[in-house]
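Field guide to reading this record: the first block holds the primary sequence, the second block holds the structure written as discrete tokens, and the final block holds curator observations. Each block starts with its own label. This record concerns SseB family protein, catalogued under organism Lutimaribacter marinistellae.

BLOCK 1 — SEQUENCE
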Amino acid sequence: MTVEITALDAAHAAMDAAPEDDAARLRFYERLADSELFLLLSAEPDGENVSPETFELADGRFVLAFDREERLAQFTGRSSPYVALSGRVLSAMLAPQGIGLAVNPEVASSAMLIPAEAVAWLRDTLGHAPAEVEARIASVHPPSGLPETLLSALDTKLATAAGLAQSAYLVAVTYETGGQGHLLGFIDALEPAQAPLAKAASEALTFSGIEAGAMDVGFFSTSDPITARLAKVGLRFDLPQPQSPSFERPAPGSDPNRPPRLK
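BLOCK 2 — STRUCTURE
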């Protein structure tokens, strides 16, 4: 029998293997935020209200969530009510209540207790929005000096942004003000998707342990003159395209200000 190793399992194993590695710990929390989690309930949802199953420990009150439906069923041993939420939405729900999170208890190698303080930290970290600035680009160059952890984080993050843009280019830039840095330029991004995409790029920086401001984000159309310059020297990221591209809403959990309400 083949045992599935989920993205959360892999990130947890990497964190366990290097307990002093802050980058590995950040990557685990990034995977937790991006993962769909199945929250065990004590009763079926009532509209937007949910009643999680909770248990008390010496360290406080916890709810139980699993990254696979099968793992939830394995834990309970019966048919149980649940709601599927992203980790970012779940952290927004739990943090104001001072509740911790038990992830995959007893059913996976990634089983762990995340105390309420860590849940609140995750909620606060995910709540940081990139600042908007205007600057004119003087020249673009191939990217250099960026760590592999950031490039990997961007690749993983953008793979979840299906249909929100055609592609993105990472380049080094010099602005007309004389400032220098790196720019992630999205091509043909749908207008409602621009804020979620900018936030996704910002999170990739944060969870890679890279200093904020090390990378700017811009949005361009295929017909913009600068797009050809980006394509010539930039590192390209292709975003997955759905069969029928449409924008109905940002990626699940991208709006932590509207989570379900705890009863």
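BLOCK 3 — OBSERVATIONS
The chain has a mean pLDDT of 88.
The helical segments are 7-17, 22-34, 69-76, 87-94, 116-126, 148-158, 194-207, 225-233.
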